[in-house]
């Protein structure tokens, strides 16, 4: 591929010697091969990829030339991925996204790597983060909270049916598409449960029931997080908070929840049943799985077959002028993140299958 397209790339590089594309000749190559336009042309990129303490990549908006479809292209610097210990997360995200296909999960179309960067071509979801809407509105009313909860439950149920635990449910990881339906994004913490390497290495006589049934083992964390999320959507703040993490952990373990007075009676009951410390008694994690959650009285008006067909009416319709509108995301200025030299072969080995 490289040899075949090299003359073409050189030609394009000549044409735009003014821009900084030479740092990214491989990116340019793949754009040519995939017939994509890089829309932000390395100026105001609209997304940073962070691990909390540092930046290890950028998200670009790209457009397919013929079909005029938009995509998000994640470009991650390999040295930064390694420095910020994100190797596992990046691999997780790729392997999980490759095997899922659901209306409420972001789609991954293609991955690639060269000597400096990892590339992931993903669906572009223009509505922005649910987090921004929640912070702007303070809190959601009962029916708005109910709508997002139903779509999130369908997404979790689907992931669990594929033996995947999401493990990072929070408003920052929920994007809205242009109609206002959700898309879960960021699968860096997601984990495949039944993985041949460890189911085979246990001695059968000694395996715990939840390991055998692959129930209760891990899935429960998503139902707990759902309880926190529903509480936060309807209250505007999480149920357990403190100035320091230790204080938060203590409150979580004590399990005492102070509900704001305005909360619906049934949703309080639902939250209490999700925020059960003993995971074997937590709603969603018992014999009937997600069905127990779906049958809860707060959801009694919901037609669950209509939910994954995106037939519920979204309460918030993002302001999106076209499919490539980036105004619901923050733009970030140019920086030095991509001035790295090529990665030594030993480091590249980590990503040889990417
Ligand atoms: C981010 O990277 C730093 C630096 O290596 C690491 O110490 C930290 O654990 C990482 N944070 C997360 C949330 O992975
Ligand atoms: C919240 O929504 C549910 C489902 O539509 C409904 O049954 C309940 O009465 C609502 N509660 C309030 C306080 O509006
Ligand atoms: C709830 O909030 C949504 C979104 O802001 C709004 O459209 C709807 O009218 C509100 N519903 C009620 C019952 O207040």
Automatic annotation (TrEMBL):
Recorded GO CC terms: cAMP-dependent protein kinase complex; cytosol
Keyword set, alphabetical order: ATP-binding, Kinase, Nucleotide-binding, Serine/threonine-protein kinase, Signal, Transferase
The AGC-kinase C-terminal domain, residue ranges: 300-354
Disordered: annotated segments: 315-336
Signal peptide feature range: 1-18
GO molecular function: ATP binding; cAMP-dependent protein kinase activity
Claim: Kinase is one of the keywords in the record: yes
Keyword Kinase applies: yes
The Protein kinase domain, residue ranges: 45-299
InterPro entries in the record: AGC-kinase_C, Kinase-like_dom_sf, Prot_kinase_dom, Ser/Thr_kinase_AS
Family: Belongs to the protein kinase superfamily. AGC Ser/Thr protein kinase family. cAMP subfamily.
Protein name according to UniProt: Protein kinase cAMP-dependent X-linked catalytic subunit
Origin species: Anser brachyrhynchus (Pink-footed goose)
């Amino acid at each position: 591929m490289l040899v075949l397209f090299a003359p073409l790339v050189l030609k394009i590089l000549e044409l735009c010697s003014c821009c900084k594309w030479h740092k990214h000749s491989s990116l340019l190559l793949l754009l040519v091969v995939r017939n994509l336009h890089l829309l932000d042309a390395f100026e105001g990129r609209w997304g940073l990829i962070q691990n909390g303490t540092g930046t290890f990549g950028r998200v670009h908006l790209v457009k397919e030339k013929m079909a005029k479809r938009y995509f998000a292209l994640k470009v991650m610097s390999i040295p930064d991925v390694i420095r910020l210990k994100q190797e596992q997360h990046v691999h997780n995200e790729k392997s999980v996204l490759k095997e899922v296909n659901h209306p409420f999960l972001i789609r991954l179309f293609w991955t690639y790597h060269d000597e400096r960067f990892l590339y992931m071509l993903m669906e572009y979801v223009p509505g922005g983060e649910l987090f921004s809407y929640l912070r702007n509105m303070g809190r959601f009313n009962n029916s708005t909270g109910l709508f997002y909860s139903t779509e999130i439950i369908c997404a979790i149920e689907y992931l669990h049916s594929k033996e995947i635990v999401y493990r990072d449910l929070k408003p920052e990881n929920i994007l809205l598409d242009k109609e206002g339906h959700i898309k879960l994004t960021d699968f860096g913490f997601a984990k495949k449960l039944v993985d041949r390497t460890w189911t085979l290495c246990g001695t059968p006589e000694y395996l715990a029931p939840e390991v055998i049934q692959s129930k209760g083992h891990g899935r429960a964390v998503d139902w707990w997080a759902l309880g926190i999320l529903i509480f936060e959507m309807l209250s505007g703040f999480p149920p357990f908070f403190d100035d320091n993490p230790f204080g938060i952990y203590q409150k979580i373990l004590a399990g005492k929840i102070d509900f704001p007075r305005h909360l619906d009676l049934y949703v309080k009951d639902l939250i209490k049943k999700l925020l059960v410390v003993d995971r074997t008694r937590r709603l969603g994690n018992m014999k009937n799985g997600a069905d127990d959650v779906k049958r809860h009285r707060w959801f009694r008006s919901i037609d669950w077959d209509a939910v994954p067909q995106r037939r519920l009416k979204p309460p918030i319709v993002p302001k999106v002028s076209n499919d490539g509108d980036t105004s619901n995301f923050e733009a970030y200025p140019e920086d030095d993140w991509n001035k790295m030299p090529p990665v030594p072969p030993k480091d590249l080995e980590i990503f040889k299958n990417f």
